[in-house]
């Protein structure tokens, strides 16, 4: 079980979240090509950026605050 925090000015790339894993993208943080598998959670907070995430069945992407910056989201279903 991992709890990853992407802070201001930090960029993550290619992270894979599995059951019990969480990742929080904070203001001015950037997550690129994150894969969220069944039971994983990607949280993108206000002013955080999410690029090219792939949300598998049973994975979740949540937006706890106001609108994040998103681009090229996967067509896989995401919990919101």
Concise account of the structure shown:
The protein is mostly beta strands and 80 residues long. It has strands spanning 3-6, 11-13, 16-17, 22-25, 30-32, 35-36, 41-44, 49-51, 54-55, 60-62, 69-71.
Task: Explain what this protein looks like in three dimensions.
This protein has one domain. The strands form 3 sheets. A 4-stranded parallel β-sheet has the order 1-4-7-10, with no helix packed on it. Helix content is 0%, strand content 41%. It has no helices and 11 strands. The chain has 80 residues and is mainly beta. Mean pLDDT is 87; it is low at 72-80.
Taking Cα atoms only, what radius of gyration do you get, to the nearest Å? 11 Å
Number of helices: 0
Q: What is the number of beta strands? A: 11
Biggest sheet, in brief?
4 strands, parallel
Largest sheet strand order = 1-4-7-10
Taken together, the total number of domains comes to 1
Alpha carbon gap, first and last residue:
22 Å
């Amino acid at each position: 079980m991992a709890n990853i925090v992407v802070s201001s000015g930090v960029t993550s790339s290619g992270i894979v979240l599995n059951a019990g894993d969480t990742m929080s993208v904070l203001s001015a943080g950037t997550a690129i090509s994150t894969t969220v598998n069944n039971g994983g959670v990607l949280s993108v907070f206000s002013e955080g950026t999410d690029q090219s995430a792939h949300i598998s069945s049973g994975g979740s992407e949540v937006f706890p605050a106001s609108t994040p910056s998103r681009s090229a989201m996967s067509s896989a279903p995401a919990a919101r």
